[in-house]
Amino acid sequence: QVQLVESGGGSVQAGGSLRLSCAASRYTYSSYCMGWLRQSPGKEREEIAIIERDGRTSYADSVKGRFTVSQDNANNTLYLQMNSLKPEDTAMYYCAARRCWAKRFYYWGPGTQVTVSS
What we know:
- The chain is mainly beta.
- It has one helix and eleven strands, in the order βββαββββββββ.
- Strands 2, 4, 5, 6, 9, 10 and 11 form a seven-stranded mixed β-sheet that branches. Strands 1-3-8-7 form a four-stranded antiparallel β-sheet.
């Protein structure tokens, strides 16, 4: 069973930082490729950070150079370090999982809200 639970969201001023965490079940962490999605009001959910099983990462252009995805294999935890936050980063952030051969994520957690004020 896929289990994903995000934490670490909150309110921050522009230029600030937050670190999101995602606790995954051992089954999820060992069987799926992981990443982060976000969705702002009125917009479609978008993939912003992906980490492959070999540690390779990729990012959406909107967050490249500011966000970093990482994983703690010993604790089945995924992280998203977000620096230089902008008001347009305000969104619900979701930890997500997919079979590594799949092109899109199809499991995600309940989400954690990030609000960036100017």
